[in-house]
Design goal:
The complex is a heterodimer of chains A (about 240) and B (about 350). Chain A is α/β, with parallel strands linked by helices and about 240 residues long. Chain A is built from 10 helices and 10 strands. Chain B contains 14 helices and 4 strands. In chain B, the strands form 2 sheets. Chain B has a two-stranded antiparallel ribbon. Chain B has a two-stranded antiparallel ribbon with strand order 2-3. The longest helix of chain B has 27 residues, at about 240-270. Chain B is globular. The chains are: A alpha/beta (about 240), B mainly alpha (about 350). Bound molecules: adenosine-5'-diphosphate (ADP) and magnesium ion. Magnesium ion binds near residues 44 and 45 of chain A. Chain A: This is Urea transport system ATP-binding protein.
């Protein structure tokens, strides 16, 4: 597997004296699927903000391969191949599922190229492949506004995939999903990892178990425990601060 | 599909109007000169409505200053019409238009040069609104001014232009503007034949403008605009330069509005700073909202129907119009959020 590792070392973020991240260290290997769990306020979203350049760390190292992410702005980090799915899905309701993916497809983005744009076979294949990956092939011609909450989340993941990221950050994908949708989402994320790394932040332990990969538990801005889901669920410190509440 | 049919029916009906005007007065199918001239005006309004719908309905740029682009297009062609009067003015000056003689000009201001040629004037009817939109749009979109702030800026723009054009020393005829036109492209104005020619020219432009807008909205560019309208920052996240896209459509829309104004002025025979009044721009927004924003046919229908109501109302209760306009402004978004087209869809299926 070629690709870049994500590497956080001794990262701290201080907001007005409040330590949101505290000496956080974490490595995500190429192709890995990593779940991040932790109680509210543990710093999960802040960690994603640091990786995507939205928040600058107060100290510490953040690298993706050879690139120093602390020196780059959001746009260049995105160009580097780091995609992020926010908690609230934002797809374009007035456009069809297919058109949503088409907008996300890598292609020249100026007004004139967009006016001249013709869907060629290669682009169609790429879109259809993603449609299959996110399980929305049947809904390709429907407006995104008609999708269920879960399907909208998948569509947004699909839009990130169209940009061909090396690392995908997904913040609380299954919040508000039905059990069935949650199960499908786990399958979806397992399927897309491998070809790229995926970091999933989630509360739902059943879901994390379904992902079946390495889990990192955050607490008060640093790593409390790391390992398989069984390992962390049996870790005494984790039980105290999180599971055993 | 229903929409297309409605549009086609409208165009055919409109095309018949100048022909029916030729019938003898006694014929039950005779159409009066008044109807011909008023429908000619409404066609120009419909082009303006299309232009506004492109910016507002598709890209979400609620311009309350599109009347300014329309008026600038009108002024450009008006300058040409003034040049064509030549020495036939009241003062009989060999070069200068009457108002310049009256104001003591000794020579033609430099910015009047070139307007002797129709082609130049027509080009200016496109270029001047386009450039103004480029500058205003660039400043506003680059600073990410959207929503109500953008509306206020565009409204202020048309108001400022109105005040400027009211000034005699601007060289555009002050509050009287331009009138007493004689001819255009060798055709004497105010003859039934010329009226028909202008009418059909406007109708052709309306159809072409519709086809252009329809084609444009079906491209990926059109879909980017819709996406910007619904979630601008998300589009930015996808790597699109939102400023460029908005600027492109805003300039195009302003140019189309300029063409509408250029077709309008020869038909009504006058252009003055009142054309810049903020109320005009707001009326245009009401047409689009009433017809159904974001649908091109809706914009066209809206321009015709609101103006029909206005004409009908002002014939017996002119004071009521502003009240009705205000009511429409408030009631349409509440009762008819998708405009007349929304009704059509409910009635006739997809
Ligand atoms: N921009 C900010 N300014 C001040 N405090 C913040 C900011 N962003 C996050 N925080 C605080 O940092 C802590 C970690 O937040 P967050 O990363 O959102 O946690 P999580 O996503 O794990 O629930 C919270 O206590 C939150 O209130
Ligand atoms: Mg969070």
């Amino acid at each position: 597997m070629s690709g870049n590792s994500l590497y956080l070392d001794g990262v701290s973020v201080v907001f007005d004296g409040f330590q949101a991240l505290n000496n956080l260290s974490l490595v995500v290997e190429p192709g890995e699927l990593r779940a991040i769990i932790g109680p509210n306020g543990a710093g999960k979203t802040t960690m994603m903000d640091v990786i995507t350049g939205k928040t600058r760390p107060t100290k510490g190292t953040v690298r993706f391969g050879e690139s120093d992410l602390t020196r780059m702005d959001e746009a260049s980090i995105a160009m580097l191949g780091i995609g992020r799915k926010f908690q609230k899905p934002t797809v374009f309701d007035a456009l069809t599922v297919f058109e949503n993916l088409e907008l996300a497809l890598k292609a020249p983005r100026g007004p004139i190229p967009c006016l001249r744009w013709r869907l060629n076979g290669e682009a169609r294949t790429a879109i259809e492949r993603t449609l299959a990956e996110i399980g929305l092939t049947e809904r390709a011609r429907d407006r995104a506004g008609l999708l269920s909450h879960g399907q909208r989340q998948w569509l947004e993941i699909g839009m990130l995939l169209m940009q061909d990221p090396q690392l995908l950050l997904v913040d609380e994908p299954v919040a508000g999903m039905t059990d069935h949708e949650t199960e499908l989402t786990a399958t979806l994320l397992r399927g897309i990892a491998g070809a790229r790394s995926v970091v999933v932040v989630e509360h739902d332990l059943e879901f994390v178990r379904a992902l079946g990969h390495r889990v990192t538990v955050l607490h008060e801005g640093s790593v409390l425990s790391e390992g398989s889901i069984d390992h962390v669920q049996n870790d005494q410190r984790v039980i105290e601060v999180y599971l055993g509440r | 599909m229903t929409r297309r049919l409605v549009l086609l029916a409208c165009v055919v009906l409109l095309a018949l109007i100048p022909i029916l005007n030729l019938l003898p007065d006694a014929s039950p199918f005779h159409v009066s000169d008044f109807i011909v001239s008023i429908c000619g005006k409404w066609i120009c309004y419909a082009i303006l409505a299309l232009a506004l719908d492109l910016a507002w309905g598709y890209a979400g740029i609620l311009s309350l200053g599109h009347g300014a682009f329309f008026a600038l297009g009108g002024y450009a062609i008006g300058m040409h019409l003034m040049r064509l009067i030549g020495p036939r003015g009241v003062y009989g000056h060999p070069i200068l238009p009457d108002f310049m003689v009256f104001l003591g000009y000794t020579e033609l201001p430099w910015y009047w040069l070139g307007f002797d040629w129709f082609i130049f004037a027509f080009a200016m009817a496109l270029v001047v609104p386009g450039l103004l939109a480029l500058v205003v749009g660039y400043l506003a979109f680059r600073s990410r001014i959207t929503g109500v702030y953008l509306s206020i800026i565009t409204q202020a723009l048309t108001y400022a232009l109105m005040l400027a054009f009211f000034r005699n020393d601007m060289g555009f005829g002050g509050n009287n503007g331009f009138t007493d036109f004689k001819e255009l492209l060798g055709m004497p104005l105010n003859t039934p034949a010329t009226r028909s020619v202008l009418f059909y020219a406007s109708l052709v432009v309306l159809v072409l403008a519709y086809l252009m807008c329809a084609a444009l909205t079906r491209t990926k560019f059109g879909r980017v605009l819709t996406a910007i309208r619904d979630a601008e920052s998300r589009v930015r996240f996808l790597g699109y330069d939102v400023t460029q896209h908005k600027l492109f459509v805003f300039v195009l829309s302003a140019m189309l509005a300029g063409v509408a104004g250029a077709l309008y002025v020869p038909q009504v025979g006058i252009i003055n700073p009142g054309e810049f009044s903020p109320g005009n721009s707001i009326e245009a927004v009401v047409w689009v909202a009433f017809g159904g924003r974001g649908t091109l046919v809706g914009a066209i229908l809206g321009a015709f129907s609101v103006n029909a109501i206005k004409t009908w109302l002002t014939s017996f209760a002119p004071d009521l119009w502003l009240i009705v306009l205000g009511c429409l402004f408030i009631a349409v978004p509440l009762l008819l959020p998708r405009g007349l087209i929304g009704l059509l869809r409910r009635g006739g299926g997809k």
